Amino acid sequence: MSHLYEVALYGEFFAKDLKPILNRLTLHSETCTEIHTREVVFEPLDAQIQRNQGNEPIFLRCSKELLEPKSGWIMYSYLKPESMRQHPEATVRPWATCQVMEDALSFASALGYVRRAQLYKKGYAFRRGPLVIHMFQQEQVDPRTQKPIPAHADTLWEVEVKTAYPVQNTRETPLSQMIEAVLDVQRLMRGLLDLRRKDV
């Protein structure tokens, strides 16, 4: 069976540039909503053993939108990005995702994973055709309450331009079409925001 993929570009900018970037993305997107997302990252129990054997462990990520009270958890995982030689313009990586209606964190633990990190992302989400564009500041976590600490005004903004859902490389939905879609956003933001491939 062939993989399902995510196609993505990334960027970051200083808070002083927020307004023009926000305006341009809003003007060229179908929708814009505020987001406040909690993300918990898990690694396999034997992650260190895998690293010692020269293998990169596969992380699980559990994500929940806090501004939508009824939203469930989404659990997803990425494999290693395809080589730059194969896809020099954008990050293309196998992507598996599923929705978890109840407690995704306990489910991840039951699968043999341990919590590695937790973060909160606060900002905006844009929809543009087959893409979702997330623009956010990361918030630190209060170690006592596990609640987010509001980001400092000068905290860098991060941008992720990516396919809104996993895509299969088929005749109907070729990866080249999705790569072209993210490159359209790269061209659209030229002069305001540098969007590029990232291999992490």
From TrEMBL:
Source taxon at top rank: Eukaryota
Localization in the cell: Nucleus
Keywords: Activator, Nucleus, Transcription, Transcription regulation
Any one of the GO BP annotations: regulation of transcription by RNA polymerase II
GO cellular component, one term: core mediator complex
MF terms in GO: transcription coregulator activity
Keyword Transcription set for record: yes
Transmembrane segments: none
Alphabetized PANTHER family for the sequence: MEDIATOR OF RNA POLYMERASE II TRANSCRIPTION SUBUNIT 18, MEDIATOR OF RNA POLYMERASE II TRANSCRIPTION, SUBUNIT 18
Subunit structure: Component of the Mediator complex.
Family: Belongs to the Mediator complex subunit 18 family.
Described purpose of this protein according to its UniProt entry: Component of the Mediator complex, a coactivator involved in the regulated transcription of nearly all RNA polymerase II-dependent genes. Mediator functions as a bridge to convey information from gene-specific regulatory proteins to the basal RNA polymerase II transcription machinery. Mediator is recruited to promoters by direct interactions with regulatory proteins and serves as a scaffold for the assembly of a functional preinitiation complex with RNA polymerase II and the general transcription factors.
Protein name per the record: Mediator of RNA polymerase II transcription subunit 18
Organism listed in the record: Sanghuangporus baumii (Phellinus baumii)
Gene designation per UniProt: MED18
